[in-house]
Amino acid sequence: MKNRAVFTLRRGKEESLDRFHPWVFSGAISNIPTGIEEGDVVAVETFDGRFIGVGHYQIGSIAVRILDFNDTEIDKSFFAKRLKEALTLRKSLRLDRFDNNAYRLVHGEGDFLPGLVVDVYGKTAVVQAHSPGMHYCRDVIAIALTELEDLEIANVYYKSETTLPYKARLDPVNEYLVGGFDSNIAKENGLLFHIDWLKGQKTGFFVDQRENRALLESFSANRSVLNMFCYTGGFSVYAMRGGARKVVSVDSSAKAIALTSANINLNFPDDTRHKALAEDAFKYLDNMASGEHDLIILDPPAFAKHRSALRNALRGYQRLNAKAFEKIAPGGILFTFSCSQAVSREQFRLAVFSAAAQSQRRVRIIKQLTQPSDHPINIYHPEGEYLKGLVLYVE
Predict the structure, then answer these.
(1) What's the longest Cα–Cα distance across the chain?
(2) β-strand partners of 116
(3) Same domain, 293 and 383
(4) In this structure, are 175 and 249 located in the same domain?
(5) Which DSSP state fits 39?
(6) Is there a single domain that holds both residue 253 and residue 374?
(7) What letters, b where the CB count within 10 A reaches 16 and e where it falls short, cover 151-184?
(8) Are 278 and 369 in the same domain?
(9) 219 and 119 co-located in one domain
(10) How far apart are CA 58 and CA 12, in angstroms?
């Protein structure tokens, strides 16, 4: 075994790791070697000395994120290999093509790179670290991205100020690691979007809703569409192309509304079908006339980022959906989502079902939605399934 600090598991704590789950919890470890620092690459062994894997150490409930279950050197060639494998999948899915250059290249555990997210927007890759180990590897990762064959990355922007554990005291700076600002317009299924990776949420755009936006387009013809929590207006732009007779975009952020309006104008200049409003979602729904809209999208930010907030989150989902059921026109279609990893698919459905029962309307599920193919779920890490959605027909 290579010369690394070794974490020894408590007796019997290797079961999940033998099933290739990539997380080592702090309670499973019998010792923490002296002199170890957050972000170090460490080896993990069973109580009787059997090698398990290598990964990044960090302080917290998840003590080690396994990078490889073989005794592998975690260097530039390691990242180059994993990035190439990730790109091969995206190429096979035909996500990188003339009418689409916005997609997720690396989805953490789903691409066997826990703690790392990389989104591609044309020639710019936006990198997010969710662990100290990936933070320290950021320059190596940036170089490996620019050297990928069959992918022309000229700019790598590092955006981790809000994603790294604050207790690590890393003081990350959002900055270009390679190149600089280029065009911020990306293409998704033939539509154009301004991507605000400098100051926007996440990496600047929610690429995880691409397939669900395309589905919404197919339902939009001649409908009055309400896009709640619109952010950059992705669903609104697709609804416009789908032939909606009216689209209203609502978000509490004036900046988001400005970006939504810019994206509408980028694709449908001077089109009078769209209206954007900076307003609280619940307040708008309270004041909205019943039957005004027959296609509503509810895509709120995560109501529960941690399990401690789960109960309040489920109440929030029930309240929000109940208001939509109350106001949607007969024969209307509701797209409703939860992006909270702490909320299970069953819990979300129960909250929506409760809202439907409260409304006393007849409701049918016509589609069950999840995250797209460029957000793969490691089969050994079911926690990677975070996006849940339902398409409902409301009589």
Answers:
(1) 70
(2) 129
(3) yes
(4) no
(5) T
(6) yes
(7) bebebbbbbbeebbbeebebebeeeebbbeeeeb
(8) yes
(9) no
(10) 22
Tokens of residue 6, six digits: 């070794």
Tell me the angle at which helices 254-267 and 234-241 cross, rounded to the nearest 10 degrees.
30
| E strand segments, the chain | 6-8, 23-25, 41-45, 51-57, 62-68, 102-107, 116-121, 124-129, 155-158, 175-178, 185-188, 191-194, 224-228, 246-251, 274-278, 295-298, 332-338, 363-369, 388-394
Please indicate, yes or no, whether residues 151 and 97 belong to a single structural domain of this protein: yes
Asked which of 188, 221, 236 is the last residue of a domain, the reply is 188
Q: What are 369-390's pLDDT values in tens digits?
A: 999 999 999 999 999 999 999 9
Provide the pLDDT confidence category of residue 311 given band limits of 50, 70 and 90. Answer: confident
> Do residues 100 and 188 touch, judged by C-beta distance below 8 A?
yes
Q: Does the active-site annotation cover 339? A: yes
Q: What is the tally of structural domains in the chain? A: 3
Same domain as 235, residue 177 = no
Contact 226, 334 (CB under 8 A): no
For 256-314, the DSSP string reads HHHHHHHHHHHHSTT-TTEEEEE--HHHHHHHSPTTS-SEEEE-PPPS-SSGGGHHHHH
Domain that holds residue 107: 76-188
Supply the pTM of this predicted model: 0.94
> Which tokens is 143 given?
């170089």
| d(C-alpha 121, C-alpha 186), whole Å | 6
Residues 6+ apart with CB under 8 A from 227: 233, 235, 236, 239, 247, 248, 249, 250, 297, 299
Q: Which helix (H) or strand (E) holds 378?
A: none
Of the listed 244, 247, 339, 356, which one is catalytic? Answer: 339
Residues 117 and 215 in one domain: no
Kindly state whether residue 197 falls inside one of the protein's structural domains. Answer: no
Model confidence pLDDT, tens digit, residues 264-292: 999 999 999 999 999 998 899 999 999 99
Which residue among 68, 91, 118 closes a domain?
68
At residue 115, what are phi and psi to the nearest 5 degrees?
95, 5
